[in-house]
Write a structure and sequence with these properties.
four-stranded antiparallel sheet, binds iron/sulfur cluster, elongated, Immunoglobulin-like, Alpha-Beta Plaits, 6 helices, 2 domains
Length: 270
């Protein structure tokens, strides 16, 4: 059974995969797997760009997104007349003939992977380039990525990567076959300085605590006075800062439901 494994840390956001998908499908008829993709409005492979934090502590995340080729696909359940089916290799296909007029399929996918083709009166989505896979080739997006951020292959062969990977929205229970490595999560960042000398403080010990799980992480402010805690899950956190010669400070309530820039934190001399 085929899977995609996408390493977000390797993705530079070059959009080559998105363009390659367009090049492979716009104006090209791959019946029985797909009718031509319209020139505009559809992104069967889409780079989602998310900005985390606030200036000057900002990170941009690029996440290639596509149909998750779910094992327990809600689109298959919502389809009439078997219009959506799973191939033996795991790729989920919308039959362009049987799916005519079945606009309900667009709403049936909680990942937003299905688009409506007004002109042809059909729902459409990523086919995993099944027409290429049949020829022993890989999907165009995989081939287009110079950074090898998107891998496609047999589940068993990619088992080591899958063991370290996550799926999007596992709580939906659809068992996606697209896995992600190195999803950035959220960060908490800031910098420390001495307001008297107006200098940054290097080497302050900074500890972040997850108040729900009890986990904690410690780092030191770098030579710009900066500190970062990355790849955090959402939750309530607290932060302690200690530095010899300065009074310790604590920030007891940090709500992390997005990345947080705490800004410049001043330490008072003892
Ligand atoms: Fe990212 Fe590769 Fe797609 Fe470029 S081609 S946007 S590096 S996944
Ligand atoms: Fe169906 Fe959506 Fe899952 Fe793709 S991501 S298989 S369209 S439910």
């Amino acid at each position: 059974m085929k899977v995609f494994v996408i390493d977000v840390a390797k993705c530079s956001g070059c959009y080559s995969c998105q363009l390659a998908c367009k090049n492979e499908h716009v104006g090209k008829d791959w019946t029985p797997y797909a009718k031509p993709q319209p020139q505009t409005g559809h992104f069967w492979m889409k780079i989602k760009e998310t900005e985390h934090g606030s200036i000057p502590k900002v990170k941009v995340e690029y996440r290639p997104t596509l149909c998750m080729h779910c094992d327990d696909a809600s689109c298959i359940k919502a389809a009439k007349d078997g219009a959506v089916y799973r191939r033996k290799d795991g790729l989920v296909i919308i039959d362009p003939e049987k799916a005519k007029g079945q606009k309900q399929l667009v709403e049936a996918c909680p990942y937003g992977a299905i688009y409506w083709n007004e002109e042809l009166n059909i729902p459409q989505k990523c086919t995993g380039c099944a027409h290429l896979v049949d020829e022993g080739e890989v999907p165009r997006c995989v081939d287009a990525c110079a950074h090898e951020a998107i891998k496609f292959g047999e589940e068993e062969e990619l088992a080591d990567l899958i063991a370290k990977a996550e799926v999007m929205q596992p709580e939906l229970g659809l068992r996606p076959r697209v896995y992600y490595l190195n999803l950035p999560g959220f960060f908490v960042a800031g910098d420390v300085y001495d307001p008297v000398s107006d200098e940054i403080i290097e080497g302050a010990e900074i500890t972040l605590n997850n108040k729900q799980t009890g986990e904690s992480w410690t780092t030191k402010s770098d030579d710009f006075g900066d500190f970062w805690f990355k790849r955090l899950k959402s939750g309530q956190y607290s932060l302690d800062i200690k530095m010899s010669g300065y009074k310790p400070i604590q920030i007891s309530d940090i709500a992390v439901d997005k990345s947080v820039n705490l800004g410049s934190l001043s330490l008072e001399r003892e």
